Amino acid sequence: EVQLVESGGSLVQPGGSLRLSCAASGFTFSSYAMSWVRQAPGKGLAWVSAISGSGATTYYADSVKGRFTISRDNSKNTLYLQMNNLRAEDTAVYYCAKDLGSGAWSFFDYWGQGTLVTVSS
Amino acid sequence: QSALTQPRSVSGSPGQSVTISCTGSSSDVGGYNYVSWYQQHPGKAPKLMIYDVSKRPSGVPDRFSGSKSDNTASLTISGLQAEDEADYYCCSYAGNYARVVFGGGTKLTVL
Predict the structure, then answer these.
(1) CA–CA separation, A96 and A23 (whole Å)
(2) How many angstroms separate the CA of residue B95 from the nearest CA in chain A?
(3) How many other C-beta atoms lie within 10 A of the C-beta of residue B107?
(4) CA count, 13 A, side-chain hemisphere, A34
(5) What is the pLDDT of residues A62-77, one digit of tens each?
(6) Mapped to the 3 state alphabet, what secondary structure does chain B carry?
């Protein structure tokens, strides 16, 4: 059974940093691209970042480029999101999501339960 | 990376059919056959319902179908059931720069 379990969300002050983790199990982690998708309170879904199975290729939404870094440790079956210089508008539930295996990395067939990041003073 | 345009809400009675539209541009929906749809119940993670415009993952009822014409994708739910009441999001690949864009979401109410 595929499982994705996020952790690391908390309350942080504007300008602060946070690292999210997503522990994966039930599939060959290194074979699949992974993404982070966020959802601000009461709002819709927004794609944040993606990483290839090997970790060699990464992509970011404009809104987080230069502030967030996605990475993965395939030996630990874990996905990360390092978030620096956090802003109030980064407040959201952050989901990690597994790609179905498409060439576009845009079909998310499994999602974690989400972890809440709140940026506030 | 502009969001795709969806109606804010749609509704239908049990047994009826509803269609949710998702309008983008030639840079996303119209340019690629990488459209997907997600169902999200309150407080839950999204669930993949349609991918590759019209394919259903294993376990998704065939009451759910997808299509695309030019820059607009559509999700049709036939034989509405109470458990279909949820938020629905479309999603499209948008090229190497923008990568992935979501629609703003549509709240489906089963009357």
Answers:
(1) 9
(2) 8
(3) 16
(4) 32
(5) 999 999 999 999 999 9
(6) CCCEECCCEEEECCCCCEEEEEECCCCCCCCCCCEEEEEECCCCCCEEEEECCCECCCCCCCCEEEEEECCEEEEEECCCCHHHCEEEEEEEECHHHHCEEEECCEEEEEC
β-pairing verdict for A78-83 and A18-25: antiparallel
- Report chain B residues whose CB lies below 8 A from the CB of A105: 93, 99-100
Longest CA–CA span in chain B (Å) reads 42
The nearest alpha carbon in chain A to B8 belongs to A44
Closest of B107, B111, B98, B110 to residue B3, by C-alpha: B98
Distance from CA of A95 to the nearest CA of B (A): 8
Would you call A26 helix, strand, or coil by DSSP? coil
* Distance in Å, alpha carbon of B79 to nearest chain A alpha carbon: 24
Instruction: Identify the helix (H) or strand (E) that includes residue A11.
Output: strand A11-12
Question: Which residues of chain B have a CB within 8 Å of the CB of A61?
Answer: 1, 99
Answer yes or no: are the C-beta atoms of A83 and A18 closer than 8 Å: yes
pLDDT digits (tens, 9 = 90+) for A71-100: 999 999 999 999 999 999 999 999 999 999
The pLDDT mean for chain A works out to 96
Please give the Cα distance from B23 to B69 (Å, whole number): 10
Q: How confident is the model at residue B2 (pLDDT cuts 50, 70, 90)?
A: low
Residues above pLDDT 70, as percent of chain A: 100
